[in-house]
Amino acid sequence: MAQVIYPFQEDDVDVIPDQTIPEFFAEQNILVTGGTSLLGRILIEKLLRSCPNIGTIYLIVRPQNGVSPIDRIKDFDNHVIFQRLKAEHPKALAKLSVLQGDVGELGLGLSTEDRQLLESNVSFVFHLAANSHLEDPLQKAVLVNSRGTRETVSLALGMKKLKAFVHVSTVFSNADHFVVEEKLYPAHGDWRTIIQAAEMLDPPTFNILTKKLLGRLHNTHIFSKSLAEHVINDFKENLPVIIIRPSILLATLREPFEGFTDKMTGPVRLFTAASKGFLHVALSDQTVTQDFTMPDVVSKAIIIAAWKRAFQQSKILQIYNASTYKSIAGMTTYHFREVGYSILRKAPPRGIYTQNLTLTRCTFIYYLLFYSFQLLPSLIIDGLLRVFIMMKSCGNCNCSLLNIQRQIFLTLKELSPFMLKQWKFPNHNFLDLENYLLPSDTDDFQYYLGEIDIHKHYTTCAQMALRHIYKEKSTYEENTELQIRLMILHYILTTTSTFIAVWLLFQYSIPTKLFYKLINAITAVLMI
């Protein structure tokens, strides 16, 4: 494969672009990986709507659950996120070109013809594809996130017209530092060696290495994304590369409309689980302020950074923390919970139990409340359902409350390190991108972070999550009556459980060590 060497200068030259973003992207062909993700769709929508003369947007899409890549993209036509685009530019979606591939495969799973097509035509690469499941085995995470980045870079090296390569990482890729600046941190391992090991070793053998490799990083996703940043860094002299690090994606701020999300991110998942009565206790520090960002703001940063990078000749790796650090008055976990309560009081959704969430830093209290008010009631209800209903209709039903509690337990286990500690993500470079905008681009691409009413925005996000994820349609009166009944049931169960627990404690004087052994045994079963 021919490798293109860009004539970079020794020092970074801060060049002011002299073409507007729509003018510059006119007739330019784009490659987007991860285009079916929440951020990917919002980026595509923004490119097509704000740069109407853009060329072809190529998407590498894999078959999923028996659905072909073309059929997956056909869903865009009816998706709510593209309705504004279709109203303003009815034929814009025709500019999407679907190529079958898989970022988790060698060569991205592309055919020879498709690879040659991309190498000949693409001017910008937006690499968003990633495996974002925190609990996935390290081998899978490395092959998709780290090797997938290497394979995308390998493809870009053959692109004769390439002007910018944007790699989307995460601010938590360096979570062993509590202040993560816009710079590259030391590697946690040699990416070449680790990718080679992931390719050669069988899963059980590679899993043995996981704990040693992760070190102070919290999960496999973070580790593999950290490796990917060093893949990008090692090719900075040969490619015009950029790294964008978003913080936790919540919901859209403005475009195409406020509050949209269809992804079960950490905060959205916790809110919806609590609103439905599945979640009653979380291991969290109430004083920690979480850094949430908005996917439409990140998509603007991606576009501006690529546009700016195309005008510069530099071998300096440019990194942007797409966070809201000091841009808005963030909310603590406690205030986030209170906003959730205010939403539920105004429009209570249908649930199986009352909405009552306790936040605690104490592991002992967390396990005590988890087993008392989540696990044991779920076991009892599952047992009653099996006796009276399930045995006749679907004797081997997997949609049990115990399965839901297991998913919640594993989710909180992965999220608890981030809910107990405070991180800071300085974002000077990210905010400075706005200063490069030409006057005619300001309305379309400015972030408008300073105008956010954070309480109002979170309220809109939560309401949209219930509407788009849970398809909530019940009336206020129906749900309010149900919540009153569930609240009465909650007080009865709470009083009874507390009385029984105190009686057993004084009657039998259960030793603390025995209690912890019981906790460990049940936890081990949940983790299976």
Q: What key attributes describe this structure?
A:
528 residues; alpha/beta; Rossmann fold; 7-stranded parallel β-sheet; two-stranded parallel sheet; 11 strands; disordered N terminus
What's the quick description here?
The chain is of the alpha/beta class and 528 residues long. Helix content is 49%, strand content 9%.
CATH fold topology of the largest domain: Rossmann fold
Largest sheet: 7 strands, parallel
CATH H-tier superfamily of the largest domain? NAD(P)-binding Rossmann-like Domain
Overall morphology: globular
Please state how the strands of the largest beta sheet are arranged side by side: 3-2-1-4-5-6-10
Number of helical segments with 4 or more residues: 19
Succession of helices and strands: HEHEHHEHEHEHHHEEHEEHEHEHHHHHHH
The low-confidence runs, each spanning 5 or more residues with pLDDT under 50, are 1-11
Q: Give the amount of beta strand, in percent.
A: 5-15%
Query: How many structural domains can be distinguished in the coordinates?
Result: 2
SS content category: alpha/beta
Mean model confidence by pLDDT: 81
| Number of E-state strands | 11
Radius of gyration, in angstroms, nearest whole number:
25 Å
The N- and C-terminal alpha carbons lie at a distance of: 46 Å
Question: What is the CATH architecture term of the largest domain?
Answer: 3-Layer(aba) Sandwich
Question: Approximately how much helix is present in the residues?
Answer: 40-55%
- Overall CATH class of the largest domain: Alpha Beta
